[in-house]
Write a structure and sequence with these properties.
By secondary structure, this protein is mainly alpha-helical. It has five helices and two strands.
């Protein structure tokens, strides 16, 4: 049986929340695979919640979950440019053949300000 794969996007606070717990759920043999969720949403003709009126409620939900999980306070970036470098970092180890798992994934949402 193939090892499970955890698909994540550095721009997703939900991926951050899941990433902090996924090892315990899927085990140590799990493969981490970065994705670009924006392209998947665009292909399905969907708009990210961060660009809708749901944004404030979703942000509060993520902040509340982080507190429940004992994670650092979430601070939201002022633009998507503040979050783009994580994807580049994630793809480099994969291409070089070294282990893909990043030793510590700081939340993408700590890169900016409220």
């Amino acid at each position: 049986m193939a090892s499970p794969t955890f698909y994540y996007d550095f721009n997703s606070p939900y991926a951050y929340l899941a990433a902090r717990r996924v090892d315990g759920l899927l085990g140590p043999g799990m493969r981490w695979q970065p994705i670009a969720l924006a392209f998947l949403l665009r292909a399905k003709d969907r708009t990210p919640w961060s660009l809708t009126d749901a944004r404030p409620a979703r942000m509060r939900e993520c902040e509340e979950r982080a507190v429940r999980y004992g994670l650092p306070e979430l601070v939201w970036p002022s633009s998507s440019r503040a979050r783009s470098s994580g994807v580049t970092i994630a793809w480099r180890p994969r291409r070089s053949g070294s282990p893909h798992r990043l030793p510590a994934w700081p939340p993408p949402v700590t890169a900016g300000r409220r």
